[in-house]
Amino acid sequence: MLFGVPQGSVLGQILFFLYVADLLQLVKRYGLHPHCSADDTQIYVFSDPPDCTLQERLSVCVDEVFSWMFNRLQLNPAKTEVLWSSSVRRQHQIPTGSACVGDTSVLPVRTVRDLGVYIDADVVMSAHVTAIIKACFAGLRQIRSVRRSLTRTTLTTLVHALVATK
User: Cα–Cα distances in Å, from 81 out to 6, 35, 54, 93?
Assistant: First the structure.
């Protein structure tokens, strides 16, 4: 290879994290918390609801991340999501305005999916429970269509594989 690292190489992830170490420090300068996994970076922050500077700090930080990534990595505004979470009692205090990512405005969403777990704005996990129930019923419907052609042992294995693992 003339440059880069072969995909799946042991060095790939280590070199990537060394490469983005500056990015993580940039996010921390704004009092925000970065989280990296594979080729994905997420920014978290915890605050009291009356923190008026939070949305501005987040926008300025994302702008700086956007300019840091210029000619290096790609920030995809279409895949960027903003989720403001709080208890049901404090939902009226969270910001409703959009956040700027480069030239794109990103409106806050009520639910995001992070590593297979659905997180909703009121932190009750109802979106995740609903998604799990849908996946279980989909598995049961698939099994139902072939159940008469299967032995009891095979049927049990399928239920464990397609339903219980959810």
Answer: 30, 15, 16, 19
